Every structure is written in structure tokens, then in C-alpha cells.
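Protein in question quoted in full.
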Amino acid sequence: MKFRTAALMMAAGLVLAALLPISRFWPQEPKTVVLDAPEEPTGSEGPGVLQYQTKKIYHQDPENLPFPLTPAAAWTPTGDNRLVRAVRAEDGGLQFRAVDYRYGFFETVRRFARGTVTACSLAPGGGRAVLELQGEESRGLYLASLSSAEDEEPLQPLKYQGMGDLSSAFWSPDGRYFAFVTWRLTEEELKPDSYYEPWDYGTLTLVDTQYPEPSFTRDIDVPRGTYQGVLSNDGNYLLMTGTGQVTGEDNAYLWNTRERLLLVERGREENSSLVFFDSPVRSVVYTERDGVPTFLYTTPQMIGQVTIRNGLLKAGKLQSLARPDSLAVTADGTAVAYSKEAAGGADIYLARLSEKGLSEGTLLYKNAEAGMTLCFGSHDRCLLAEVLSARLTRSDGAEKEGEGTEILPATWTSATLVIELR
């Protein structure tokens, strides 16, 4: 009996020893970490307070990018537990993946070789992207489908005038309409020794992605620079703001993209396309409340809104707030998430939006990284936060520059955080 027991123990040991070397080939743990979430509801009983409860919080490891791209992640069009993420492929090119944010599993939906894509604008909803492709003698903008069922669908070239790039590109919240600004070079600017920097006439091009031909183009008179902004759901309105080049009060423009009639702001008839704010705008989102087009925005002192009724603009303050940054709004326009700068980072809050204004924000997540972007999922119960960062490296790994060292190009990374609500 003892001999049989010893033999069985020895056999079990041999089996275990044989299995141990194989463990190194088992699938690695998912690149998703479930963080602790509060068990109590985020809001208490009372009028105007959201009854949301934080269910789970998922943190994904940073992914490298071939070039700076914001946002580099979006929800999939189907509204499931997956994100569309742009990542740097092994050959240095651009790759799009559908990633399950809960477990980290992914499938590649489209890839482009190194050097072919120089810039990208990812649509909300993750179903499409506009790419800036570099050829041997020219470059151009192309519309790409990111559906895995249409992986081989050819790229659709976009027609436009002037110098086209994606430094000032705008989407509607559902990802159907896309607009971008191109600039026409003057003769003085073409001269190598010219320092001429005038207000340039740009061309605003609107594209319905279901019909890639330009839906409308119009000339706009704005300072040349880089702009952020958002289109309305129907593509009729665009609120664009400067990202550093334009400061002071002249920092936001609201355009009617389809008609050549300028909108009129009360008391501002002398320049009706210009929306005057006291401080530079940090973030802009769009929603509709009772059929009224509404743009929400942040400045360093407040969260405000711009509404359009019968062709008239009305800008007002929703809530005084110190250092709000990024915004996100639910599809039904009833809830707003925003980040607020704090010591060493930023905190994420949730508030109710109603006719009475914006309720007091309730803390969802503390000590996140500053400079994030926010976006709700299609069912409004998942909030995506993303941070773009750059890291400089040297050829020899030295911490300080010295003889024989070389500063390598920055490595851009994108890190995401998903907050599930119930």
C-alpha cells in the first residue's frame, strides 16, 4: 500500500513537472485591470440629482501609436463591450482593433503599412475614419470603413480645395457627418523667405459619409491655425474653437454648413459668425434638448451652452466651476460628465442637465491623468476616458544628453479607462 501511494505521488510529480514548462506558453493575462468601485450610489435622493451607481471600472494598458492621435479610441457601432482602438502595428504602421475592454481580447479590423498614413481622424462610434495618405508625389484625404465585415472595402477619396490635412477636422456625434478646413496658399506664402501671416480664407467642406461626395463647401474667414469642434447631428451647424493659436475673445466660430446665410447672435450683428467668450474654450460637445440644437462648452471658469432657436444664437452659463476641462454628454442630453483639474491630475464628475441648468457634479473617479477626453457609449451607461501622452527616449538609454547620444522621435501612447454605470 505504501509502495502504491509513493508510486502515485511520484507519477503526479512527474505530470506536474512536465506541465510547468508549458505554462510560459499559456495566454497572458488580459491587458485589462478591474479597479475597485464604490458600492454606494453616486447621487442621493433629490430633484435634479442623477441616480447612477458605479458598477465597475476597467483600466487598459497604454497602447503605442504611430503618430499623435486624439481620440485614438471610440465605441464600436454595435454598442457592445468593445472599443475601436488605433494602435501602432509591429511594422510601425497603423492598425485598428476591436477590443473587448472587459477582458482585453481583440481582433484586427484594418491595417495600413508604415509610412502610408500620416494622420487620422477617428469617428465617434468607431465605424469610420478619415485618413491622410502620403503617396510618392502627392497626399490626400480618404474615408475608410472600420467594420470587420468590410475589411477589403476600398478607400473613398475626398474631394476638396486647397491644402488638405486633418489638423482641423470635426465629426457629428453619431459619426455620420464629417467636416474639415483647408487653406489656400497666397503667392507671398509660397516664397521661401516670406514671413507673411495674414488672416487666410479657408474652405469648409462638409461630407456625408454615406455619400462621400462633398455635401457642401463654403469659404470662411478665420485666422489660420488649428481648431477643435463638433458638428450637429444633422450636419447643419459647426462650432469650432481655437486650440492655442487664437486667444482672447476671438476664439470660437459657429457656422451654418449648408446655407450661405450667416447666423445672428443677439447684439453681435456686426460679425455674426463669431461667438464671443470671456476665456478660451477648452472642450465642445453637442446634444439636442427638445429638438433645440445645443452646444456645451468649458472655459477655465465655467461650463456653458450655446443654443440655436429660429436662427438666433444664445450663449449662457450653466455652472460656475474652477478649471473644468473635457466634456461628454449622453445621447438623450440628460447627463453630462466632465473632468476637473485637481492637484497632480484630474477628477471625473457626473451631473444632470435639465431646463433648470446643470446640477451639482458627483465624483465618479479621482486622480485620473490630466488632459483626458471623455465619451459616453451608445446606451449612456458606459463612460470612456482616454489620455494621450508622449515619451522621449535616447539611443543609448541615458538619462542625460551626452556625446554619442541621439534624441529619438517621441513615442506616443494612448491609455483608456471605462467606467460602467447602472
User: Anything to note?
Assistant: The CA atoms of residues 324 and 340 lie 4 Å apart. Confidence is low (pLDDT under 50) at residues 1-49, 245-249, 260-272, 398-402. Helices lie at 2-19, 187-190.
